[in-house]
Specification:
By secondary structure, the protein is of the alpha/beta class. The protein has seven helices and ten strands. The strands form two sheets. It has a six-stranded mixed sheet, sandwiched between helices. A four-stranded antiparallel sheet has the order 2-1-4-5, with helices on one face. α3 packs parallel to α5. It binds adenosine-5'-triphosphate and magnesium ion (MG).
């Protein structure tokens, strides 16, 4: 699956002032790529990821997924696209506090209406892969920052999406756990050709990425 930004701008209005978060950005991410999006705080990384994940609309320009313009999809089609094909790891995790670790990771499979037995096997296996099997029944607020991050990662990967959009995926992880998570994601990229786009400051991710895209003041510099 490819995602393309075509001359995309995004403005946020805050009272009298306008923040130009993205300025005329064009960027294509094709199937199987592993891209690191790097830039200082406030440069527009999270904004770009949200637009690529069809979570928000640009102020101008277009977002395309394969040969489909996202702004032409209705709400149902948008929901299906996000549910079935895009894995999103948010900077703030966006976990559901009333659900257990297991319940958070299971949720995308419930939405996909997978049978219970199959859900349980998949979730169990995924929790083992991210090292959280012994926390399955805990509430997410009982977890450390790094553990929460791993729940978010497990939730994004559980549906085997075509693309994983990941906002600072290793920011709260100790270096050993961070390496393990990166190994897992890199395997998905190499073996299953899952496309990876990471917004990151982590030199470890930048070193592993096949392509580095820099962003500064809402403008892209590729290469
Ligand atoms: N909802 C919003 N309303 C108003 N301004 C916003 C909003 N979201 C982001 N911005 C502004 O847009 C600009 C880009 O923000 P963005 O979150 O994309 O940066 P970032 O590169 O992800 O930064 P960080 O590395 O700190 O996560 C910033 O100046 C920010 O203050
Ligand atoms: Mg950000």
């Amino acid at each position: 699956m490819s995602i393309t930004l075509k001359s995309v701008s995004k403005e946020y209005r805050l009272g009298q002032t306008t923040v130009h978060a993205l300025r005329n950005v064009s960027l294509e991410i094709t199937q199987g790529e592993f891209v690191a999006l790097v830039g200082p705080s406030g440069s527009g990384k999270s904004t770009a990821l949200q637009l690529m994940g069809a979570l928000d609309h640009p102020s101008s320009g277009e977002v395309w997924v394969d040969d489909q313009a996202v702004n032409q999809l209705n709400d149902r089609e948008l929901a299906r696209l996000r549910r079935d094909r895009i894995g999103f790891i948010f900077q703030s995790f966006n976990l559901i506090p009333v659900l257990s670790v297991f319940g958070n990771v299971e949720l995308p499979l419930v939405l996909k209406k997978l049978p219970k037995q199959e859900r349980q096997e998949k979730v169990q296996a995924m929790l083992e892969r991210v090292g959280l099997a012994d926390r399955a029944q805990h509430k997410t607020e009982e977890l450390s920052g790094g553990q929460r991050q791993r729940v978010a990662i497990a939730r994004a990967l559980i549906t085997t999406p075509s693309i994983v959009l990941s906002d600072e995926p290793t920011a709260n992880l100790d270096s050993k756990t961070g390496e393990e998570i990166l190994d897992l994601m890199q395997r998905l990229n190499q073996q299953d050709r899952v496309t990876l786009l990471f917004a990151t400051h982590d030199p470890n991710i930048v070193a592993r990425a096949k392509r580095v895209v820099s962003i500064l003041d809402g403008q892209i510099r590729d290469g």
